[in-house]
Structure formats: C-alpha cells, structure tokens
C-alpha cells in the first residue's frame, strides 16, 4: 500500500478542510519526510490525484491578500473516508509491508475504536508468528546461520525482524489495553495537526513549486510557517 495516500487522507480528515501547504506542514511535523516518501512534490501530487479520484473535493478559495495565487483547500469525501479507513486497517494488520505504512497507520489508529485496534494488532502478531514458523521449517535459528553459509544471515535477519516486530506489537497491545491514548468514541481526540499559522519546529524549509498556494503568498516569501527549517 502507499503510505503517502494514508498520510494525506489522515491529515486532511483531521483538519476537516486543509490546503496543500498545511498538509505538507503537518507531515513534516510528524517527521514523515524522514521515514516515508512524503516529500512536497509527492504530497501535492497525491492531493490532486485523490481529488480526481473522488476521494477529496477541491475548493478554490480567494487569492492571498498579499498577491499570492488562489489556493485550493481539500476536504475528504465519503468515498475518501472509506478509503482512509480501509488503508488504516490494512496498515495496522499487515506484517509484510514497509515500515512507513505501519508508521502511517499508527498516526491514525485513534480514529478507530480501541477494541478494533487491539483486534487488528493481534492479527498482525498472528501473521508474524505464522510467517516465522514457515521460515523456520527450513532454517533453525538455534543452530546459527553458519550452517547455511553466509546466506544463512539472510534468514537470520528475517527471523529476528519477525521476533522484534511481534514483541513490539504485543507491547503496544498491552499499552492500549491498559488505557493508553484516546480512541474513537472516548471523548476529545488528541489533536495531531497544526493550527493555521502555528509554528512548526520540525519544518524543513525546503521550497517546492506547490508551496505557492500557502497562506501569505508565494514560496519566495521567507515568512512561511515553520521558520525556515532546522
């Protein structure tokens, strides 16, 4: 699955309605540019593509008061919400995907009910355990990787990754079962996005043509949200 789609839908959904630069700023605040393909061009492209696909609706707003072009604000549609929840559940359940998809799923897991998240994570553990069992039919970790030559290190790495993944997931399940975090239907949710104009201490400050639609003018204006990077 594409982590960028899940991340963008998550950010827009949390805002209710957001422009592209706002979404970019949120994802940089989450550090997604470090652990996923959520680079500025990918974010703006995803917004436009999902609007064409009917997952988002694009609203053109008035031009900036300081001379910038009209900007587009995006709002998630019913289809988009269904897609978001499908991707979210897949990200929390699947064990055989890149870590950026899991990380994106963790960012949105509180949009589901606590009991459902626990069930999805248990399925993830079961998948890891079953996959490990299939690997160890041919490779016995206790005997050490050397019995297969240096190629054994490949199997050794995957078995250890499965063990670590299962252990971490069990720990997360225990924390959630113990009452950590506020999930859907449990009151005021945690606000994980930045308010309009709120400073982002983790902004990269890297300019992109899509930034022209940000509030306050064009990308050449250095008074952007985030203070110009780290």
Explained architecture:
With 230 residues, the chain is mainly alpha-helical. Helices cover 50% and strands 7% of the residues. It contains 8 helices and 3 strands; from the N terminus they run H-E-H-H-H-E-E-H-H-H-H. The protein has helices at 3-15, 20-29, 32-35, 40-52, 78-93, 99-108, 114-135, 152-177, and strands at residues 18-19, 56-63, 70-76. Strands 1-3-2 form a 3-stranded antiparallel sheet. A hairpin with a 6-residue loop joins strand 2 (56-63) and strand 3. The longest helix has 26 residues, at 152-177. The relative contact order is 0.17.
Brief characterization of the structure:
This protein has 230 residues and is mainly alpha-helical. Helices cover 50% and strands 7% of the residues. The protein starts with a helix and ends in a 53-residue tail after the last helix.
């Amino acid at each position: 699955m594409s982590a960028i789609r899940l991340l963008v839908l998550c950010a827009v959904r949390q805002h209710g309605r957001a422009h592209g630069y706002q979404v970019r700023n949120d994802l940089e605040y989450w550090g997604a540019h470090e652990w996923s393909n959520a680079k500025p061009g990918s974010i703006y492209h995803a917004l436009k593509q999902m609007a064409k696909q009917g997952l988002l609706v694009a609203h053109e707003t008035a031009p900036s008061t300081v001379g910038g072009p009209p900007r587009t604000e995006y709002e998630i549609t019913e289809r988009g919400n269904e897609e978001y929840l499908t991707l979210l559940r897949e990200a929390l359940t699947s064990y055989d995907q890149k870590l950026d998809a899991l990380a994106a799923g963790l960012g949105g897991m509180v949009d589901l009910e606590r009991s459902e998240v626990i069930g999805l994570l248990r399925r993830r553990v079961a998948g890891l355990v079953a996959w490990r069992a299939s690997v160890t039919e041919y490779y016995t970790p206790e005997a050490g990787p050397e019995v297969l030559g240096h190629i054994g290190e490949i199997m050794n790495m995957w078995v250890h990754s499965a063990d670590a993944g299962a252990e971490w997931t069990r720990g997360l399940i225990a924390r959630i079962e113990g009452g950590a975090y506020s999930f859907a239907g449990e009151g005021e949710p945690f606000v994980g996005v930045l308010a309009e104009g709120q400073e982002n201490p983790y902004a990269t400050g890297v300019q992109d043509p899509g930034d022209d639609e940000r509030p306050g003018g064009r990308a050449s204006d250095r008074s952007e949200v985030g203070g110009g990077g780290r």
